[in-house]
């Protein structure tokens, strides 16, 4: 069964399901969520991704394939299975919908290509493909190589602006950290990894929770340098309000 809703094509095939953006000429089959499908056109992401992310290339372009993996203690006995609660509640479909919502509003997020799941009894596995953001580096990596005060201040302002736009669109990021903000060659800051993200009425408390999570990440990765950067970012964020 195929139906078109909210600029997405949905394909159901037994215990499998897939959403994809029709702007991308992707193969409508669950095998596109396996790196083996791309053969030599799949390359593991070296940082992050819990060893389950690849840069891939196909007829529709270049993207990042991410298979959902659990973290924390539960990952010791269950790395990739989640409790089934309906297709639209799968991690992949939820993130697909959220990214489409954000991209349609001009927010600095990657375009989402496709989302899929494979159900087995009461559990499922899931995967997502997003379009590659060319010439980008994680904020943490950029800051390590940056010492010029003018550039640091400009980058803090760009980070604050992107986060503010996300919050103004009533989007909550579940894991806002120094690796989920990417900086491109023009100093534009992109937001990635919206697994477990949600559309919420972003109260001051929720906004602060997001920002404080980023602060902890910056301090952990960059120590004092991270805290100094955070002070700049916090000041610029407040000016946007």
Textual characterization of the structure:
The protein has helices spanning 91-104, 139-144, 149-168, 204-240; strands at 2-5, 8-13, 16-20, 42-44, 53-58, 61-67, 82-83, 112-120, 123-131, 137-138, 171-172, 181-183, 189-191, 198-199. It has four helices and 14 strands. Strands 1, 2, 3, 4, 5, 6, 7, 8 and 9 form a nine-stranded antiparallel β-sheet that branches. Strands 10-12-13 form a three-stranded antiparallel β-sheet. It folds into two domains: 2-131; 137-240, Transferase(Phosphotransferase), domain 1 (Orthogonal Bundle), CATH 1.10.510. By secondary structure, the chain is α+β, with helices and mostly antiparallel strands. The relative contact order is 0.12. A hairpin with a 5-residue loop joins strand 12 and strand 13 (189-191). Helix 3 (149-168) crosses helix 4.
Report the count of strand segments: 14
The outline comes out as globular
Proportion of residues in β-strands: 25-35%
| Euclidean distance between termini CA atoms | 46 Å
Largest sheet: 9 strands, antiparallel
Give me the number of helical elements: 4
The chain-level structural class is: alpha+beta
Helix percentage range: 25-40%
Mean pLDDT equals: 91
Radius of gyration: 18 Å
Uncertain residue ranges: 1-5
Tally the structural domains. Answer: 2
Order of helices and strands: EEEEEEEHEEEHHEEEEH
């Amino acid at each position: 069964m195929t139906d078109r809703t909210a600029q997405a094509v949905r394909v159901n095939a037994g215990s499998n399901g897939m959403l994809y953006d029709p702007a991308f000429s992707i193969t409508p089959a669950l095998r596109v969520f396996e790196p083996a499908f791309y053969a030599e056109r799949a390359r593991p992401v070296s940082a992050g991704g819990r060893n389950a992310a690849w840069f891939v290339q196909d007829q529709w372009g270049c993207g990042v394939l991410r298979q959902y993996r659990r973290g924390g203690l539960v990952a010791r006995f269950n790395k990739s299975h989640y409790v089934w609660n309906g297709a639209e509640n799968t991690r992949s479909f939820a993130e697909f919908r959220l990214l489409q919502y954000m991209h349609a509003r001009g927010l600095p997020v990657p375009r989402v290509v496709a989302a899929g799941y494979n159900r087995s009894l009461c559990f499922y596995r899931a995967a997502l493909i997003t379009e590659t953001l060319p010439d980008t580096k994680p904020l943490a990596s950029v800051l390590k190589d940056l010492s010029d005060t003018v550039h640091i201040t400009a980058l803090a302002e760009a980070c604050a602006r992107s986060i503010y736009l996300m919050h103004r669109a009533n989007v909550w990021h579940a894991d806002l950290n120094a690796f989920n903000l990417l900086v491109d060659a023009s100093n534009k800051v992109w937001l990635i990894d919206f697994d477990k993200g949600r559309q919420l009425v972003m109260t001051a408390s929720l906004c602060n929770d997001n920002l404080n999570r980023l602060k902890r990440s910056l301090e952990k990765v960059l120590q004092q340098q991270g805290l100094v950067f955070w002070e700049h970012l916090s000041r610029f964020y407040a000016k946007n309000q």
